[in-house]
Amino acid sequence: MPAKQQQEAKPGEHPAMQQQGRESESAHVTVNKNVTVVNGQRRIPNATFRASFGRQHTFTVNNITVISGQPRFQYGGFWLGLGVPWPGAWAYADPVYVEFVDGQYYLFNIRHPGLRIAIIVL
To answer: CA quadruple 59, 72, 54, 112: dihedral positive or negative?
Structure first.
């Protein structure tokens, strides 16, 4: 039996969203028009991600809210949860952006390029 070929993500394309339209063993459920669940993780639809997220879409995190012990903030119509505490060197007024890297969302800070924070879509 031939091995399955892997597709490479196109620039700006959400690799997780490549599963749409292809056979997959993974669970793939659309929660609503704004959120899809892939393998138990909430994902931002590809078109929405390209329109509001990525290096070209910087913003500031002016307000962190903690709900049930989970620090989170809102951006682009989504609640995004922090995977680790806010780094002490980062200011809330620093320009940041969200990227999807190796199946995970990360928050990057323009002023501190060597550090990224894992985030989740809530």
So the answer is: positive
Going by C-beta distance under 8 Å and a sequence separation of 6 or more, which residues neighbour residue 59? 75, 95, 96, 97
* Residue ranges of domains in the chain: 15-121
Residue among 116, 106, 105 at smallest CA distance from 41: 105
Q: 79: which strand partners?
A: 74
Q: Per residue of the chain (122 residues), what is the pLDDT tens digit?
A: 444 333 344 444 454 444 444 434 445 555 555 666 766 678 998 899 999 999 999 999 988 999 999 999 999 999 999 988 899 999 999 999 999 999 999 999 999 998 999 999 99
61, 81 Cβ separation under 8 angstroms: no
Spatial distance between the Cα atoms of 43 and 34, rounded to a whole number of angstroms: 9
Distance CA 56, CA 108 (A): 12
- Classify each residue of 86-113 as buried b or exposed e, where b means 16 or more C-beta atoms within 10 Å of its C-beta: eeeebeeeeebbbebeeeebbbbbeeee
